[in-house]
Target: ABC transporter ATP-binding protein
Amino acid sequence: MSMLSVRDLTVKFAMRDQNVTALDNISFDLGEGERLGIVGESGAGKSITGFALMNLLSRPGYIDNGSILFEGEDIVQKSESQMRKIRGDRIAMIFQDPMVTLNPVLTIGQQMIETLMAHRKLSKAEAEQIAIVKLREVYIPSPQERLRQYPHELSGGMRQRIIIAIALLLDPDLIIADEPTTALDVTIQADIMELLLELCQSNKVGLILITHDLGVVSQMAERTLVMYAGRIIESGPTREIINDPQHPYTQGLINALPQQTLPGHKLKQIPGSMPSLTTIPEGCPFSPRCQYATDKCRRIRPEIVKYGPAEVACHEVNRLHETQSEEQSA
Model:
């Protein structure tokens, strides 16, 4: 049985004139200790997926349909008091900006110790010792001193390491990391991702990594979901998706990577932009930006179908594959 099983999950936002769909019947599974990447442009629905998995959606957003089974329990049906026992304890989340996550008026020690004592029957001294151990695990120097410091006294990289330590405090089964290095310098990003990977592997913790960076996903995730306009348009083993993408959108994301362009040449980009939730096209939502789009693509929404080791939602997947084969043999 999968540790996490999402089925037909639909999230909507109640607007003044209409209800708009942010997630449209997405389904996927995550095994115990598995690492899954969710990629796509801004507005694809990645972060909404993370918030829905934590049952953290607030009005006007709401789960309209579907189930989220975590270790056999449907999170969608849980009350807020029941979810508080799951969040942080069994599922932890790492957000984009550590300065938003950490309370600026409490010391690092207060935040870590209070978290432990809220979920475990521990004395303050016992909680402090666990906090020190977790800070050491993320290579924080002089952890006893850090417990007495406030978030503003630490560097961005140090704050993000502390966020990871807090996520691991209660030995969760699953960590959801939403763009965990966005607010950091490029030189620090690789160190943080390497640390997160090391800790997930050593603690056998499942990881859902939400990012726009396919380069990061290729190093971190065993499987990848590619999202567009609130839908999963391709999924499969990460290596297969990176080396042999089946959907034109996935191909566009890979071509847009800087390393795919020769020095001195303009970076490649996907023409157009992600549609807003109120103007998602009929048929395939990617069709206005797709060079392979046909009348069928513009009229009929493609269903997810098995194609080799991956699953893809594209009417023209065979033509795309033939074109790629011709280009490679040329």
